[in-house]
Each structure stands twice: as structure tokens, then as C-alpha cells.
Amino acid sequence: AATRHAVASRVTARASAKASSGATSSSVAALMAGAAASGAFALSGNRRGKVSRTFRSSRVKLQAGNLEISEENPLHVIIAGGGVGGLMLAKALSKEPTMKCTIFEQTNQFARFGGPIQIASNALSVIRDIDETLFNNLMDKFTFTGCRQNGLVDPLRNEWYCPFDAMKTSADHFELPYTGVVDRPDLQEILLNAIPEGMLQNSQKVSGYEVLPDYAGVKVQTKGGEDAVCDVLIGNDGIWSAIRAQMWDEDQKGPGSGCTYSGYIVFAGETIYKPDDYFDVGYKVYMGPKRYFVTSDVGRGRIQWYAFVAVGEGEQVPRSPREKKDYVKAAFQGWSQQVQDLLEATPSDTVE
């Protein structure tokens, strides 16, 4: 959720279908709707080249052209960044026969890293609609939390401030899967196995782009010096996005980047732990002044926790895992015994 995505979308003459009727290719419409959910658009308009507008809207009306996108003449899309968002988008686009998709990923190979992430019911329903097999593979690795009690908790009395059902009512009404969690490495592996062979290109870090004249497309520039030309470039290159920085003419990182310090730092840990309400509760958010503590069942007897603490910008924070654990224990001293027991049970080397 923290990641701001950017979309550099150059709609060439080929991306403007069926000029006489003004209709748009369904695959282009699907791409634009999906990309709108990711972030911002840079869309070039009419063929005379006199109009170039930037859209932050999810509705984009394509200008009519005289060439139609087809299976023989597909729209070429490059996705900068092979994270879970980029891989999922690539899978969706691979289902469109009128699109050719390529992922540029900066790492030379994928490694298993990161902890569990939550996927809500509405997102699960989208994944299911994109590809049933992918969805079923995800369910094999999934832990449901939305069907249990969740909510805000008083950290001193250990009483519920505000319990809620984490979309359970909506999920039941619309026949959606319940919200839950999956280990990021498992999700990554499922997605990598789901995309067509040859779609992913490793060791390709996108550094910028150039919109070519005369509707010739977008030139994608990489750190290695190799350029590629496509019709649509989608930035999925993280919170410090090079594409977004260029598109919005802002710094890639720092105060001028649009991604400013929230005033909080977060520590995270994971351990095998079974509280008294283990089978009844999905996740809890212990709320306190200028700090809060989140716990969630993440499957296989594990509890993951996040500790948010208000800290001034530039203030020194501990660096080693042992020091981080001690810092968190001190910050939440006197809170619920469950918080204390969970921190005590967490191995220091797992604290980040």
C-alpha cells in the first residue's frame, strides 16, 4: 500500500483502434483500467501531436487512430519491476491475445525474502477472475483470518475497543473468499510459475524513458545501457520509482519525492506462539498514544507482529536485531501481557 506506482502510457496510432466508430479495443480498455488502479497516467492524445495531457483518473478515453491492435499487431507493454504487483499485472495481460508483455526486473535472480502479506477479499476475487488455476495454487498456501474476530484492542485492559469482521459480511454476501495472509515468497513463486516463459528479463533496471516523436512509442532506458521500445511503459519499480520521478518531475528520493517521512518507524518480528485466543482471532491492533502494536496469525502456528513507534525524523534508532528487540520491549513496557509474552518469545535475529 505504501508503494506509489506510475504509468507512462504512450498510446500510439496502433493503440487507438477502430477510428471510424471511436470504439476502443477491449484489451486496451482492460489495460488502462488495470493501470489506473496502479497509479498515474501520462497519455499522449491526438495524432497531430499538439495535445499531451497527464491523467490521474481511472477513466481514459483513447484518441481514434487508423491502425487496429490485433493478434498479428499486438500492443507491446513493458512493466518496470517484477514485484508481486508487476507479476500479477503481467499474468493478467498475458491472457490478452492482442498484447505482448515484457517484465524488466533489476535483480539477476529471485530469492525467497519477506514475510507474510495480507490479501483482502476483493483482491482475492480479482485474482480468481484473472486466473482460476493461479487462485487455487494461492489457496493451497493461504491462511484465512477474515472469518475470525479482528479489530482494535485496549493495550492496558486487553479489551476490544472496536471489533470488526474484516469484510466477512461482504465476503459472505458477494460470495467472495475471506481475507487472509500468504507468505510473500510463496506468492512470488506462484506468480513466477504462472507467467509465460520468456516474459521476464532479469538484470534489467529501468532508469528512465523517452516518449518518441511521431507516435513511435516509448524508449525504455536501462542502467546497463540497453534500450527497448514499446507502446506502453508501466512503472512498478517501488516507492522510489525512477519512472514516477521523471513523469512528475520530482526527486526520486527524499523530501521532494512526494514520499515523505510519516513520523513513525516500524519494527517487525515473527515467532511460534499460541495465545489463549489463537483459534478465535485473526489479527489485533493494540492502540496507544504515538504507538501501536499489530499481531496476526500467519499460518503454521506462527504469529507476526508489527510495532509502530513515533520517532522524530533523523533521530537515532537501533541497528542490530538484539538492540531492536530491546527497544521495542522498552517502548511497549506495561502493555498487554500478550504483547510482552509475544516479544519475549520472538528470536532476536528475526526482528527487523
Automatic annotation (TrEMBL):
PANTHER family: PTHR46496, ZEAXANTHIN EPOXIDASE, CHLOROPLASTIC (PTHR46496:SF1)
GO molecular function per UniProt: oxidoreductase activity
Protein name, UniProt field: Zeaxanthin epoxidase
Keywords assigned by UniProt, alphabetized: FAD, Flavoprotein, Oxidoreductase
Domain of life of the source: Eukaryota
Record keyword Flavoprotein present: yes
Transmembrane portions of the chain: none
InterPro entries reported for this sequence: FAD/NAD-bd_sf (IPR036188)
Cofactor(s) recorded in Swiss-Prot or TrEMBL: FAD
